[in-house]
Amino acid sequence: MPTSPVISERTLILDTGPLRELVVYSAVHDLRIMSLKGHLQYFHERSHYERVTEFIANFPKKTTTAHVVTEISSWIIQKSDPKGHFAIWGLVYAEFSSMGMDEDVLKLVDMPQQLVADFGAADAGILQLASNLGRIKPTVLSVDSALIAECKRAGVDAKDLWEVIFS
Q: How far apart are CA 108 and CA 136, in angstroms?
């Protein structure tokens, strides 16, 4: 089983939901793409956005998987006007750059098939990345209750976005 390069202590692994919410919030409030306002599920007030960005900033290292980036790409294609894609991708690039986001590529064949069958490739990738980090004891930030439960069952710290917003 391949291992990731050594990653510093206090690593945050971001799942699709929190990253998408950050991008949608910025698209609505910075780019004024009001057609996406109905897609905001968690950041109903600026303070919600601020609490989450503060939480994320507390981690010196942030990472995700290429599977998560693919899910964000699919969401952008399906839910936004093609004329806005360049600007929305600009937000994604800016968000990843400002966070110093790393991105791990995990091969499908290196993930347990049962894990992929049970959770899908994106969530299986998050679980595999957390497992690969092992001794680092990462924290996973997600909106997916099944993924959060599986992380906790596997001994991985996991937070629901709501938990961060209302902590």
A: 23
Per-residue pLDDT reduced to its tens digit, 71-113: 999 999 999 999 999 999 999 999 999 999 999 899 999 999 9
d(CA 40, CA 25): 7
CA dihedral 135, 141, 147, 150 (to 10 degrees): 30
Q: Which numeric CATH code is attached to 11-165?
A: 3.40.50.1010
Residues 6+ apart with CB under 8 A from 123: 15, 144, 146, 147, 150
Q: Which of 121, 113, 133 is nearest to 63 (CA)?
A: 133
- Amino acid at site 151: C
pTM of the model: 0.90
Those residues whose C-beta lies under 8 Å from the C-beta of residue 167, and which sit 6 or more positions away, are 51, 55
Which residues of the chain, if any, have pLDDT below 50? 1-8
Domain segments of the chain as ranges: 11-165
Count Cβ atoms below 10 Å from residue 21 Cβ, excluding itself. 21
